[in-house]
UniProtKB/TrEMBL annotation:
Signal peptide: none
The name this protein goes by in its record: Ig-like domain-containing protein
Highest taxon, organism lineage: Bacteria
One Pfam family it belongs to: Big_6
Spans of repeat Cell wall-binding: 356-375, 376-395, 396-415, 416-435
InterPro entries for this protein: Big_6 (IPR041498), Cell_wall/Cho-bd_repeat (IPR018337), Ig-like_fold (IPR013783)
Residue ranges of every copy of the Bacterial Ig domain listed in the record: 213-291
Keyword set, alphabetical order: Repeat
Listed SUPFAM superfamilies: Cell wall binding repeat (SSF69360), Collagen-binding domain (SSF89260)
Amino acid sequence: MRLKAIGSLVVLMVILLIGNSAVKAETTSESLKSLFNKGVTSAEKANFTFAQKQKIREMNKVLTSGKKWSESESANRHAAAKAGEEYPPIYEVEPNDSISQANPLRLDEIALGTLDYYDIDTYKINVTKSGPLAVLGLMDEYAFSEIGFLLFDKNDNLVDIEDIYQEGKLLVEFYTIKAGTYYIKAFNLNDYYGDGYALMATMNFGDEDTTPPAAPQVDRVNDKDNVLRGTAEAGSVIEVSVNGSVVGTAITGANGKFTVSIPVYPAGTVLSVTATDSAGNKSKATKITVASSTFTGWVVENGKRYYYTNGVKNTGWFFQNGKYYFLDKTSGAMVTGWLFTENKWFFLDKQSGEKKAGWIFDGGKWYYLDAYGVMKTGWVKDRGAWYYLNSNGSMKTGWLKSGKDWYYLGGNGAMKTGWIKDGAKWYYLYSSGKMASSTKIGTYRLGADGAWIK
């Protein structure tokens, strides 16, 4: 609903409380300014340690950037939020005056909006656990407006405020709630309008996190790149600096990935990259040197090996100095160990990455790779001896039934011929390796199971 300009904050309070029979009569006669500026000092008792102080800095940064989204983009961001995707911050979509029109807002997600006079902006939050809740509102540093907000339950009943904390343009309200659906109604506390605000709800209470995140992992940058990519702790703020001056920032997504826009720098420039988590803890700096776009050769980045040709990562099979390597088709990272490609299995040395051929021993089992490095199965002949490889490529030992015939493979996997003893019994294997049965070998009679009948 759009409220008529009646010039009374008391009336605004009354309208907000319509339908709430549980509200005390004296509350409706209290000035909103008095309510929101009473300066309650017991906020510390709530043990709120601003674990989200980095989010507050982020809120301020977004506010002062002056960025606004189109109506279609705003709708897309809200649709993504409904689907549970990582797509913050969101920007309010009008109309959102009542709980039936509320914009979806997840805990610890930032909502951006504009305070018009007598306008109510409503946000819906779903809380999955009981406990303390804090709602934070932050105004632009240069704003004349003052933000106010109240919390309502699913029945549009006002939830009692336990504490209020205010510092400059930041307003925090504390509640104790049960799991369920709630609505935050934000509004203007004075006659100015058109100022931007940021709003967030959090249940991150307890001891303050003082552990810095791990240093970011950063991809290679050359003298033609204007972006820097990598991974770091999810939700952390990434800063790229050159000679102590910040040249680019970004926020990591839920998957920890980030992309930072940076100026193009000449080869040899050292970039320093840090991650600051939501509690304000900063990681150690990862330092990388801008490479030449004409570079050719092997490099190690974030613990993985890559090969560049004129500054471009090679992918797929790569041949060098008589040896084959396989570089991941997407990332370009050198692959080691087992590789399945082109419907065939290959094995790449776990240290050098070189494609192997012949016998290899891995995981306590032997495997055989042909001259092209392809893993073999079934019967293979090597250096005059026959071996049998299971469907997973591992070498078979002991008795083997192939078709209707039995064969015996020694401890080294080689197929046996002639007389063999297995346990307390003797068996005879023809030159083809097939076990003799129900017959005589010389004067020795063999039973149906192939064992010598004494």
